[in-house]
Design a protein that fits this description.
The protein has 10 helices and 16 strands. The strands form 3 sheets. It has a 6-stranded antiparallel sheet with strand order 6-7-16-15-12-13. It is elongated and about 105 Å long. The termini are far apart.
C-alpha cells in the first residue's frame, strides 16, 4: 500500500543542486515535493495547485523571496500559506536575518548551507503548526455554521413569540395596546388579554427570570397555563394558585416568573387582581380625558410564581369604570438607568402618567419615549413590555 503523503512542499531556489538535496530529504521524510528556480514560476505553480508550505530562497531570481512573501501574504486567498525563507548568513547575523524575514511576513527562516536533519525538523515543525491552523479553521467554520443556525432559530422563535402576543385591539369595552422590546430579539416577557365565557375579560402580564431562549420557553408555558385555567370559573386567586403549581412542577428551582393576573368586570366596574411579585400596576381614574390626573399604584404584596408549590396569594379589587386607564409593565422599564446612575423607578413612571394624551397609542408611546429620554444615551438592558388598557364607554 503506498504511503500517504504528509503534505505538499514547493521548493524555490535557483541552485539545482540545493533543490535536489532538499527534494531527496523531503521525499524520504514522506512529503510531496515540487521544484521551481524562479519567483515567477512559484506564482504559476500556485495557480495550478496550492502547496502547504513554500521554501523560498531570499535571493530568488525573477521575484525575490522577500517580495514573493509579501505578494503571497497580501492575498486573502493565500495569506495563511506557510513560508520559510532561506538565506545565507554572510554580512549580517543569523538573528538579524530571522528578524528581517519575520518582519516581511515569513513564518520561519533557515540558514544555508542546509543540514538535512535541521531541514526536516523545521518542516515537520511547520506542518504541526499547519495542521493546528487547519483544525482551527475547521472548528471556526463549524462554529460559524452553528452560530448562524442558532441565529436562524432565534429569529424563528422571536417570530413565534410575537405571534403569541395579541395585537392591539378591543375586547368588549376594553381597548388595549402594547409596546414590546425584548433584549436580543427574544425574551421572557409575555401578556394575554382573553374574553371569559362566563363574563368579563382576563388579563395577564408576566416576566420570567433570565433572558433568551429558556426564558422565552417558560414565558410560553406561563401563557398556556393562564389560558388553560381561565376557562373554568374562578378568579385571579384561583388562576394564580394553579399557574404557580404548574410552574413549580415544571421548571428548575431557580426559575420563576412575576405576573399581574386580573379579571375585568364591566358590569361591576371593577378589576380583581393578584400581583405575584410583579411591578405595581398604575390606575388612572378618568385617564382617557387627557387632563392632568393623579395616577395611583395598585396594591402589590404577593410572591412570584414557581418558587414554591404551596405559596399563598392574595386577591384585591379596585374600581375600573368607563373612562379609566390601566398601565401594566415589566421591570425592564422602571429599572432602566440613566447616565448619571439614576433609576427611573415607579415614581418616575407615575410622573409620566400624570399627563397623558387621551389617544391610547399616543399614551403608550409617550411613556416609552419619556423612559428612553430619561436614560439617554444609555440603552435598555432588560426586556420591556408595556400594556395600556382603557375602559371605553359602550
Amino acid at each position: 500500500m503506498p504511503q500517504t503523503s504528509k503534505g505538499l512542499v514547493l521548493i524555490a531556489d535557483a541552485e539545482s543542486s540545493v533543490r535536489d538535496v532538499m527534494h531527496f530529504y523531503l521525499r524520504r521524510a514522506g512529503y510531496q515535493v515540487l521544484q521551481t528556480a524562479d519567483g515567477h514560476d512559484v506564482l504559476i505553480e500556485m495557480a495550478k495547485v496550492q502547496p502547504d508550505l513554500i521554501l523560498a530562497d531570499l535571493s530568488l531570481p525573477g521575484i525575490s523571496g522577500d517580495h514573493l512573501c509579501k505578494i503571497i501574504k497580501k492575498n486573502p486567498d493565500t495569506r495563511d500559506l506557510y513560508i520559510i525563507l532561506m538565506t545565507r548568513a554572510t554580512d549580517i547575523s543569523e538573528n538579524e536575518t530571522t528578524i528581517e524575514a519575520l518582519n516581511i511576513g515569513a513564518d520561519d527562516t533557515i540558514i544555508k548551507p542546509l543540514r538535512g536533519q535541521e531541514l526536516i525538523a523545521r518542516v515537520d515543525s511547520a506542518f504541526r503548526i499547519i495542521s493546528m491552523q487547519k483544525e482551527i479553521k475547521q472548528r471556526n467554520r463549524e462554529l460559524t455554521a452553528y452560530r448562524e443556525s442558532v441565529q436562524r432559530d432565534i429569529k424563528l422563535a422571536a417570530l413565534l413569540q410575537l405571534s403569541l402576543l395579541p395585537e392591539a385591539g378591543a375586547v368588549g369595552p376594553y381597548h388595549y395596546t402594547h409596546i414590546y422590546k425584548p433584549v436580543g430579539g427574544i425574551g421572557g416577557d409575555i401578556y394575554a388579554v382573553s374574553p371569559l365565557p362566563y363574563g368579563g375579560v382576563a388579563i395577564m402580564i408576566a416576566d420570567v427570570s433570565g433572558h433568551g431562549v429558556t426564558a422565552s420557553l417558560i414565558s410560553t408555558m406561563v401563557k398556556t397555563s393562564f389560558e388553560n385555567h381561565i376557562r373554568t370559573r374562578g378568579g385571579p386567586l384561583i388562576w394564580a394558585q394553579c399557574m404557580n403549581r404548574d410552574l413549580a412542577r415544571n421548571t428548575l428551582e431557580e426559575q420563576y416568573a412575576t405576573a399581574f393576573i386580573a379579571r375585568l368586570d364591566p358590569t361591576a366596574g371593577t378589576i380583581s387582581y393578584v400581583s405575584a411579585g410583579h411591578e405595581s400596576a398604575i390606575y388612572i381614574a378618568d385617564g382617557l380625558s387627557g387632563e392632568p390626573r393623579h395616577p395611583t399604584i395598585l396594591n402589590n404584596a404577593c410572591s412570584p410564581l414557581g418558587m414554591d408549590e404551596s405559596m399563598s396569594f392574595s386577591e384585591y379589587t379596585a374600581p375600573f369604570t368607563s373612562g379609566d386607564r390601566l398601565i401594566l409593565y415589566t421591570d425592564g422599564l422602571v429599572e432602566a438607568e440613566s447616565s448619571s446612575n439614576k433609576i427611573l423607578g415607579s415614581d418616575g413612571l407615575l410622573g409620566f402618567c400624570s399627563e397623558m394624551p387621551s389617544e391610547l397609542e399616543d399614551a403608550a408611546a409617550l411613556i416609552f419615549d419619556q423612559a428612553q429620554l430619561f436614560i439617554d444615551p444609555n440603552k435598555f438592558t432588560d426586556d420591556i413590555t408595556l400594556l395600556v388598557i382603557d375602559h371605553v364607554a359602550n
